[in-house]
Amino acid sequence: MKRMQFGKRTCVFLDRDGVINKKLPEGQYITRPEQIELLPGVVEAIRTLNQAGCIALVVTNQRAIGLGLLSEMGLAEIHEHLRLELEARGARLDAIYYCPHDKNSCHCRKPEIGMIKRAFQDFPDASANNSILIGDSISDIEAGRRAGIPTIFIHGDPANQKPGAEKAIGLADAKAHSLLSAVNQFIFSNP
Ligand SMILES: [Mg+2]
Ligand SMILES: [Zn+2]
């Protein structure tokens, strides 16, 4: 495991489920706004990024749409709810990118990097040189690596660890227990 400090980053890519909100058990999908449960410290972490002038972006695979379990409008409602929950507490997401497709059918589902590329077009100040990606899946870590962005793996509850977690830990540039811990330790650390 490499230990490193990343310094201030302009652009922070955040996975959603398992990083911002509590993920459901493997194979279950969030399909209603009330299923969004913010993880501890997330509001503070995102607020810290906002106050430092970072761009806070979500990049999330939402295969439930491709599987017919959720509509694009349903996902928009979930994301509106997420934004409002955060904004009510002073934390802002600059954009939310999602892939609605099923596996192996597009160039945006992580570990593909379509969402990251699109963000770089939408936010010209952001690039691989000043970005970081924080996720809790092997697909997040692989997407960051393919895009040339350093990665932090969030390992939550060990009992609820996803398949591929061990590999992800090995590939990530750093690991942390929560988004807040990642932000404080690696992005705003004062050595
Ligand atoms: Mg996740
Ligand atoms: Zn896609």
From TrEMBL:
Active-site annotation: 15, 17
Amino acids binding Mg(2+): 15, 17, 136
Main localization, broad class: cytoplasm
One example GO MF annotation: phosphatase activity
Keyword set, alphabetical order: Carbohydrate metabolism, Cytoplasm, Hydrolase, Magnesium, Metal-binding, Zinc
Coiled-coil region list: none
Residues with site note (Stabilizes the phosphoryl group): 60
Location of this chain's protein in the cell: Cytoplasm
Pfam name, any one: Hydrolase_like
Cellular component terms (Gene Ontology): cytoplasm
Cofactor requirements of the protein: Zn(2+); Mg(2+)
Annotated site (Contributes to substrate recognition): 109-110
EC number: 3.1.3.-
Binding-site residues for Zn(2+), renumbered to this chain: 99, 101, 106, 108
GO biological process, one term: carbohydrate metabolic process
Domain of life: Bacteria
Similarity annotation: Belongs to the gmhB family.
Descriptive protein name: D,D-heptose 1,7-bisphosphate phosphatase
Organism whose genome encodes this protein: Koribacter versatilis (strain Ellin345)
